[in-house]
Design goal:
269 residues, alpha/beta, Rossmann fold, 9 helices, 7 strands, disordered N terminus
Length: 269
C-alpha cells in the first residue's frame, strides 16, 4: 500500500500521460504492474544495467587477449577468428518499458513494430558506452532478436520488422546493418530458439560475450513449449538446472539484464 501511494504521488509529479491506465481487453492494468513500474521508475534498475555493462567493459581486454576464450561452450578452435559480441535487442539494447505501459492488451508483434516505427528508441543504461568501447577495440557487434519477420498489409517488404529494428538501434547512435541484425523467421531454420543464429555467427567469429535479458539468449531449449531444433519443452526444474550447468559463465562472458515484464520465464508456470 505504501509503495502504491508513493507511485500515485510520483504520477502527479512526473506526468499524467505515462501513468494513465492503458486500455486492456483482458483486465490487465499496466499502471499497477510492479515489474513494469520498477523498470520505468526505479534507480535500482538503471544501476543494475549500468553495473552489467560496466563490468563487461572492464572485462573486455582480457577476453580479447585470451585467444582461446569463447563465450560459446560449443565453439572450438576459434583462436584465428575475429572477435564478436552477440546482443539481444529488446530490454537489452532498446528499452520498451513505455510500450509495456501503453499498448492495448493482448500483445501482438505488429503492435510493437508500429510503436517502434513511430517513435525514437530509448537505450538501456550502459549499452551505448559498452558498444562504443567494444568497437574501439575492434569487436564486431551482432544483434540477435526474436522480433519476427512477418508481412504487414500494404507493405511490400517481406520483413518490415528488420528495418524498424535497424532504425531503433541506429537511433541510439549504434550504427548497424542488415548483415548484423538477425530476426527470427528471417531465414529457414531461424526459429525463436537462437542457437542456430549464434552458431552461424560462430562459424566466422570468436564470440567473446553474450548479452540478453532472457535465459534463451544464452541457453538453448528453455521454453515451456518446444521450438525447433529443441525436441522437448523446458520445465521450471530444467531451467534452474541450466544455472548450475553454466555456472562459470554468468558474469564471465555471459551478461544478463533484468526483465520482470516478459520472457520465456513465463512459459513454465
Amino acid at each position: 500500500m505504501i509503495l502504491m501511494r508513493s507511485f500515485l504521488v510520483a504520477c502527479v509529479v512526473v506526468t499524467t500521460v505515462a501513468c494513465t491506465p492503458a486500455t486492456s481487453t483482458d483486465g490487465h492494468a499496466p499502471d499497477k504492474d510492479l515489474g513494469i513500474l520498477w523498470v520505468k521508475y526505479s534507480a535500482e534498475y538503471g544501476a543494475i544495467s549500468r553495473q552489467v555493462y560496466g563490468a563487461a567493459e572492464r572485462a573486455l581486454p582480457g577476453y580479447l587477449d585470451n585467444k582461446s576464450w569463447t563465450a560459446m561452450p560449443e565453439q572450438k578452435n576459434a583462436e584465428h577468428l575475429p572477435p564478436a559480441v552477440i546482443l539481444d535487442v529488446d530490454e537489452t539494447v532498446v528499452s520498451n518499458v513505455d510500450f509495456q505501459l501503453s499498448f492495448e492488451r493482448p500483445f501482438e508483434n505488429w503492435k510493437l513494430n508500429k510503436w517502434s516505427a513511430e517513435g525514437t528508441a530509448t537505450p538501456v543504461s550502459g549499452v551505448i558506452e559498452f558498444t562504443a568501447a567494444a568497437r574501439r577495440a575492434g569487436v564486431e557487434l551482432f544483434f540477435v532478436t526474436n522480433r519476427p519477420c512477418q508481412p504487414i498489409d500494404g507493405n511490400a517488404d517481406p520483413c518490415p520488422q528488420e528495418k524498424t529494428t535497424i532504425d531503433d538501434i541506429r537511433e541510439l547512435g549504434i550504427e548497424t546493418d542488415a548483415e548484423h541484425v538477425m530476426l527470427s523467421d528471417e531465414q529457414p531454420g531461424w526459429t525463436r530458439e537462437k542457437i542456430v543464429r549464434r552458431e552461424q555467427i560462430a562459424q566466422s567469429h570468436r564470440v567473446i560475450m553474450l548479452f540478453g535479458d532472457d535465459l534463451g539468449d544464452f541457453v538453448s531449449c528453455v521454453r515451456g513449449k518446444a521450438v525447433a531444433p529443441c525436441a522437448a519443452a523446458a520445465t521450471h526444474a530444467s531451467r534452474e538446472a541450466s544455472l548450475e550447468t553454466y555456472r562459470d559463465y554468468w558474469g564471465a562472458g555471459w551478461y544478463i539484464l533484468p526483465n520482470p515484464m516478459h520472457g520465456s520465464w513465463t512459459s513454465t508456470f
